[in-house]
Specification:
The protein is α/β, with parallel strands linked by helices and about 350 residues long. It contains twelve helices and 13 strands. The protein is globular, with a radius of gyration of 21 Å.
Length: about 350
Amino acid sequence: MRLIVTAMKNEGPFILEWAAYHLSIGFDQFLVYTNDCDDGTDAIWERLAELGHGAHVISDKIKQRGIQKTALMRADDHPLTAQAEWLSCLDCDEFLNIKHGHGRLDDLLGHSPEAHLHIISWRRFGAAGVIGYDDKPVTEQFTRAMPENCPFPFHNYGLKSIWRADAPYARIGVHRPLDPDPARLEDIKVVNAAGRELPMYCDKRLWLLPEIAGFEGAQVNHYALRSAQSFLVKRDRGLPNSKVTDLDLSYWAERNFNTVEDVSIARRQPEMQEKLAELMADPVLADLHHKATLAHRQKISDLMQQPETLKLFLQLIATETGVISPGMARRLNPLIAKSWEADRARKRAERKGGA
């Protein structure tokens, strides 16, 4: 059994595409930990578990190490983990894009059958000028990405992995398994997606060195931003693995790569759509997805009423080449006018107080 372990909060509108895609390439089950969701993320995973697609756990009593690491620590002892033959930790904005063969897990694993650990490069995908949220597949909307040779900033070359459950590692990690058995280090075979052996990756490195990073064989399509409006929701939610990273204009700019077109994942769309249709055929799941999209839209509307969030949104779209639609302009202009008037009133009050 091939298992994805992950943690999620308020990813409701994006779950079914992500799950359908990974089922279509050969993963069998999901072990998902959720916390403090208000968009139906927890209900969607509960229903997916009822339909036989894995297990859902409400994550409470978060430890000091944070939401994501708390979840992975608990996953180490979950019965589903004990049944797995292969393990991977992928977030809801990460899609394992395999280029070997037909783009399935069998093709990746069969390329280096003796490997215990497959290291796979991130490829960052930008917002591609998409400003508003739309209930369409992420993998179809966002097709602009970083170039292959892109060493700055250093975290461009992040890694993810898939590993044998019987490999001599003690714990599940966000990027790769942790704590290899020192007595068996020489027995561990680690390869990149192209099949090149990487003996140095038995250590704790989280980022690939530029000279061995690359997208040959496979990559993890990383849609960290999605649309400008959906980014506001992500900012409101926060990151599962960091309490200190600001989801601000700098975060956006460092990840908004739209340099080259990459549609290599498109060949998987027919099978993904077929699996998605199977999931949506369940009326309960279809209703939960619909409610999640409504909750996402309402959250966007609520956030846009906040002056600081509106200011950030205007900064985001100023960096994009997308054209504001007339409908969005009609919605935005009153908000901007209201924000400006509030700002002028504040400054008048400050001047009056100073006098």
